[in-house]
Amino acid sequence: MKRLIHFCILCGFVGNSFAQTETFDLVTYTVPKGWKKRPAESAVQFSKEDAAKGTYCLIKLYKAVPGTPSSKENFDLAWISLVKEKVTVSVAPEMQPAATENGWEVQSGYAPFENEGEKGIVLLVTSSGYNKMVNLVILTNTDAYEKDMASFIESITLKKQTQTTNKSSSTYEKNAQEISAAKKDGFAFTTTNFDDGWNSTVQEDWVEVTKGNIKVLLHYPKEGTIFAADPGPLTNAAWNILVAPRYRDIKNYKTSSIITYHRPYLGMGYATENVTGKNVFIVFFRQGNSGWLEFIAPDKNSFMQQYKFDPETIQWDSNTDLLIPLANMVGYNKFAVAASDLKGKWTSDFTGIQQLYNVYTGQYAGMNMNQSNEEFIFNAGNSYNWKLLVVNGMVGNAKFTEEKSAGQFTVPNNWQIYFSKIETGPRTFSAFWSCIKGARVLNLLDANAPGSGIYTKYGLAK
User: Fold this and answer.
1) Which of 273, 311, 319, 350 is most buried, with most CB under 10 Å away?
2) CA-based torsion, 421, 422, 425, 430: positive or negative
3) What pTM, to 2 d.p., does this model score?
4) Beta 247-257 vs 214-219: how paired, if at all?
5) Helices (H), 308-427
């Protein structure tokens, strides 16, 4: 068995395909004759077995997913999510020398496994490049399919890619409007290219989101831009701080709002950009607890083509549904997570208080309190400590509860974090970073129990 594994790994992901080939995602390969094929959206699987002898071989090729700059880190993440979560492996994989071809670096290793009493060998080959990784997993309990396995691996070629940063779509069209270079802030990902064509970059004072000839600035909170006031004075004050200094010759400026629960405020006008000298149409927007958003288009018609309404016609009784596409832009303050980002203590606090009164007498009946503090401490070697403190009950008779866990974490696909133990067992969280001035916020949501879909936000403790 070991001879077979060494031979297969030496073939690597760099061979030339021959005979009739197939393509799955970024990979071209030749399938040995007589193998059963089972395609799926995220992977394609090939298998062969001898029921009489109880022998089998299973080959599973996975679709490319976002990866970190480190090929070994990608292999380690894939080993946990694609191997250890599927079968029982009691030892670390025996690694083979890395190989590089066409910008792809291959890390490979194997180990004995056990699954429901069956024993065999599992082989993982992870090919990393262009901020992506492609994984191949082989499970077998026999040398009988050595020739077919070797032929399959030898036939594999990966497409050479154009280098991009955290690209979440396989196609990309350059924006007609220039995209500002992302600000380097010490995190692995400072750009996100969304599947719907919007592209976000981290900037000093905002997140810049672009698509075609539309640019949207998701401004970070700034003193003097949010305070209790009527729509006109508040919008004017925020405009003068966040918008006006970057333009000249501002014309036809006006403000408006809609009277509703999440009262949306708008400012708009025509102006000339100080830096480029271009004439643009600007819409300035805020709703509820969101920050200020600045929409920049070459003219009003371009804005209307994208957002399907004329902002200059908005008044107090307009339909608030018109502004939903504007409000949804806050969701583009979203950046992928790498394991190297997770350092130090990240905490989240919650406090809720209820003042109680007797329904018959109207007299004060006490106060009910709910408080919680949750923290993740990320240590060296991908280890962590987790703690949750909860206090609830009537003031003077509140109860205190504490839960603790510790273990290893991984980042299997840059949008999730896997923890080996939270309370009673392993747990995977959907995860992303959002940006504020000079810092990031960690957003986590239990992937298996998303509930309302609202992420819990964690800040870095000093």
Assistant:
1) 311
2) negative
3) 0.63
4) unpaired
5) 324-327
- The residue ranges of every structural domain in the chain are 2-158, 194-330, 339-460
Which single residue is written with the structure tokens 């240590």? 379
| Same fold flag, 194-330 and 339-460 | no
Amino acid at 196: D
Give CA–CA dist 159/183, Å, rounded.
Answer: 30
For 206-251, write each residue's pLDDT tens digit: 999 999 999 999 999 999 999 888 889 999 999 999 999 999 999 9
Q: Which CATH number fits domain 339-460: 2.40.30, 1.10.287, 1.20.1530, 2.40.128?
A: 2.40.128
* Residues shown for the chain: 462
Find, among 214, 79, 5, the residue nearest to 200 by Cα. 214
Q: Report yes or no: 350 and 370 within 8 Å, Cβ to Cβ.
A: yes
Helices 2-11, 146-155: axis angle to 10 degrees equals: 20
* Angle, alpha carbons 207-210-214 (nearest 5°): 120
Tokens of 294: 């600045």
